[in-house]
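Lecture notes, continued. The same structure-token format from the folding unit now serves as the input rather than the output. Read the line below as a description of shape only.
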């Protein structure tokens, strides 16, 4: 530390010391003035920022209101809603920035001025006072007469005491000056550095937020270009149509302008007529009439429900009315009542009378046929994905991802700092995070943590279930097992960012607080998991059998490669049109997906197919050594996500290969276990979806062999290679065809068709086929939300001819 005022020089009380003191006092006075000004400017900036945030919030509310008003246009509504949510997040970031400015600039510098500079001023007062007393003592000592001994002694004693007091106070004053000069540097730089870090976090979070929004903005940009072209074309067409109609002569055919015929919607005639009321005054009112579905109805306004005048036209007659004063009238008479109406011209009256007569004749002629058509239509409108006519479930209907994830105990506060009401999550760890900790997690890299918003992002059902299977409590038991033992302090809300960042890196990157198991503990864990897997497998054998679904039969002479497989009940067409009819009434044959209970046993098959053979039973062999990779291997099969997370925390390789069991990986064992969530957890933690075992079979092969449709759907979405062949030169499609597995054949063919369509569209195509997207979404929703609809009815038997 550089000494501003020398301690020995101050004892001399030299002119040099006095000059230095005067210079320091002037500097401190100026410093106080500058700091006061800076604090006031900071307060003004914060107030202006709050006013900006308030105005910005009103603007965002205006965007939301516009989105709500545009419910009929899905593109505008969804885009504006997404933009409003993103802008709201930016407002939140601004609020955090201003709060940090208040803490780092206003509060910290005000404390420095009030405490340290105030102590300096108090020390200065004491110094000035003792200096005056010393000066007076020196003068009195000099003036004491030589012949008056008692005055000399008194003056000498006073001078000695005053000098002693001066030395004590001047040393304290110099110490206060030196400390203040040193502390001013650290306090000012600390305050400004904290403020600059707050800006860094603000811009980093904003960049991350708009990076996630960029694909949507690019997509909208492309759509806007096309919309501009379409709008210009529509404008030209409308101008041409306007010109054509304007030039057309309707003088001889004005009747057509007065009524409409919409045969496609079952409307035989519609238009305005005057109707005579049935009240005592017999008033006439203009109403919009229409003849539809063998009924005569009218409306006062378009939004009103139609009022039925005649229930069944077969019971009516229509006639001219010439015996009343008004012109162009006609009457529709039924057994219970009559309705008097008036057209605007004779031509219109004749047209209405003819339309009613034709409708009466048509009603008599088509009554029986319509009933048969209606029955036949209702009996055939079924689908494999919507059995019972139930509506398809879409993601997060009625309950948001935020509500579901926060419902898990421990998830209502940030996993790392305890900040309540978190809005972010790490999907590969299964934890919830506050906005500050989410930014730190992003900086770790996706190999440590994958951050996603609970409010802005779309959540797949299998990913949402993964979050609900783990949670902050489970993960903290693993990653903070030794925290108290090591005496490490867990961050609290409001702690400086650098402290929280250091803790998070120690927790997830260095894994400093993870308790390493002993060899005996690891052995017991692996053996327990292998036994748990056996219990789950054995318990599944005693599940009550479900009635077998309709079974597809191979057409005689069909190709084994599956190029002409059809099912009388499934309705799967081997065409490349991508139609949704490919799924009509397909028999379900896949696994329970992610219900996390054992799969039901194979159902008995009709005589048309050979009996199924069981899959290779999982047998536990005593390994050469126990490792976290082996724990992950058996935990994946036993469907135990906490044990899988623990194994990864202990350093297990997610693509660990068991050389004692045909080089199988944890992902293949997760397929054997039958849980969609365990597969999702491994994939989120960088498991290789195409890694093969000793038989050349990857996870997609095994899922197809076991009939796990939900897993097949998941692997195809994650880029599994469906063209890979095992050592028997069999692809997943070949296996699915031989097992007559209609659902999996559908998924594989659709995925292949979608891939071919994207290749044909060009290397930069991202869209793919909409039917492919819709069908895969249907399977994903069903696998997670209604796995009972996907019941496996046969496993693949590799020995079957």
């Amino acid at each position: 530390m550089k000494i501003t005022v020398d301690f020995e020089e101050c004892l001399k009380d030299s002119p040099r010391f006095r000059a230095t003191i005067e210079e320091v006092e002037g500097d401190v006075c100026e410093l106080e003035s500058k700091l006061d000004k800076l604090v006031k400017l900071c307060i003004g900036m914060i107030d202006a920022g709050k006013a900006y945030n308030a105005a910005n919030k009103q603007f965002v509310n205006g965007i939301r209101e516009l989105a709500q008003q545009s419910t009929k246009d899905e593109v505008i509504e969804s885009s504006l809603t997404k933009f409003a949510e993103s802008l709201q997040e930016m407002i939140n970031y601004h609020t955090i920035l201003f709060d940090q400015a208040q803490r780092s600039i206003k509060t910290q510098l005000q404390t420095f001025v009030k405490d340290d500079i105030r102590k300096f001023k108090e020390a200065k007062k004491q110094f000035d006072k003792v200096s005056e007393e010393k000066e007076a003592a020196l003068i009195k000592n000099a003036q004491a007469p030589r012949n008056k001994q008692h005055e000399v002694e008194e003056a000498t004693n006073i001078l000695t005491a005053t000098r002693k007091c001066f030395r004590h106070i001047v040393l304290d004053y110099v110490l206060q000056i030196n400390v203040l000069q040193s502390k001013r540097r650290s306090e000012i730089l600390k305050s400004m550095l904290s403020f600059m870090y707050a800006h860094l976090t603000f811009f980093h979070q904003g960049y991350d937020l708009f990076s996630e929004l960029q694909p949507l903005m690019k997509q909208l940009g492309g759509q806007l270009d096309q919309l501009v072209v379409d709008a210009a074309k529509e404008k030209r067409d409308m101008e041409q149509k306007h010109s054509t109609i304007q030039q057309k002569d309707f003088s001889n055919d004005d009747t057509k302008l007065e009524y409409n015929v919409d045969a496609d919607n079952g409307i035989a005639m519609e238009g305005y007529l005057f109707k005579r009321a049935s009240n005592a005054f017999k008033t006439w009112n203009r109403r919009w009439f229409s003849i539809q579905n063998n009924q005569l109805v009218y409306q006062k306004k378009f939004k009103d429900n139609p009022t039925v005048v005649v229930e069944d036209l077969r019971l009516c007659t229509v006639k001219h009315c010439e015996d009343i004063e008004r012109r162009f009238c006609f009457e529709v008479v039924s057994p219970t009542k009559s309705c008097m109406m008036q057209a605007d011209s004779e031509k219109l009256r004749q047209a209405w009378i003819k339309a009613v007569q034709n409708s009466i004749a048509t009603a008599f002629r088509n009554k029986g046929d319509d009933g048969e058509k209606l029955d036949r239509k209702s009996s055939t409108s079924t689908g494999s994905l919507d059995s019972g006519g139930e509506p398809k479930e879409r993601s997060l209907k009625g309950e948001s991802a935020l509500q579901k994830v926060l419902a898990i105990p421990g998830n209502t506060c940030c996993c790392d700092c305890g900040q309540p009401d978190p809005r972010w999550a790490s999907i590969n760890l299964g934890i919830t995070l506050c906005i500050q900790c989410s930014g730190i997690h992003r900086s770790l890299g996706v190999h440590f943590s994958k951050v996603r918003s609970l409010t802005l992002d779309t959540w797949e059902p299998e990913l949402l279930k993964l979050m609900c299977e783990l949670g902050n409590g489970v993960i903290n038991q693993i990653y903070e097992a030794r925290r108290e033992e090591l005496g490490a302090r867990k961050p609290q809300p409001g702690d400086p960012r650098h402290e929280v960042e250091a803790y998070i890196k120690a927790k997830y990157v260095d894994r400093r607080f993870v308790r390493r198991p002993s060899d005996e503990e690891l052995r017991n864990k692996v053996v327990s998991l292998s036994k748990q897997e056996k219990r789950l497998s054995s318990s599944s054998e005693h599940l009550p059998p479900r009635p077998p679904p309709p079974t597809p039969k191979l057409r005689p002479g069909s190709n084994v490669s599956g190029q002409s497989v059809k099912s009388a009940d499934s309705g799967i067409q081997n065409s490349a049109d991508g139609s949704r009819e490919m799924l009509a009434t397909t028999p379900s044959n896949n696994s329970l997906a992610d219900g996390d209970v054992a799969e039901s046993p194979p159902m008995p098959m009709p005589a048309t197919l050979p009996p199924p053979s069981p899959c290779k039973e999982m047998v536990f062999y005593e390994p050469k050594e126990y490792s976290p990779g082996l724990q992950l291997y058996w935990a994946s099969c036993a469907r135990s996500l906490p044990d899988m997370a623990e194994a990864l925390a202990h350093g297990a390789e997610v693509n660990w290969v068991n050389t004692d069991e045909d080089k199988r990986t944890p992902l293949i064992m997760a397929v054997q276990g039958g849980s969609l969530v365990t597969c999702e957890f491994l994939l989120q933690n960088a498991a290789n979806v195409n890694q093969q075992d000793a038989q050349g079979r990857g996870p997609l092969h095994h899922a197809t062999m076991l009939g796990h449709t939900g897993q097949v759907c998941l692997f195809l979405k994650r880029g599994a290679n469906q063209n890979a062949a095992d050592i028997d030169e069999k692809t997943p499609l070949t296996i699915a065809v031989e097992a007559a597995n209609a659902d999996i054949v559908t998924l594989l063919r659709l995925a292949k068709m979608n891939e071919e369509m994207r290749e044909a569209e060009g290397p930069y195509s991202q869209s793919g086929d909409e039917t492919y997207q819709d069908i895969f979404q249907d399977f994903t929703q069903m696998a997670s939300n209604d796995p009972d609809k996907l019941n496996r009815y046969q496993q693949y038997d590799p020995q079957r001819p």
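Point for the exam: The first strand starts at residue 259 and ends at 262.
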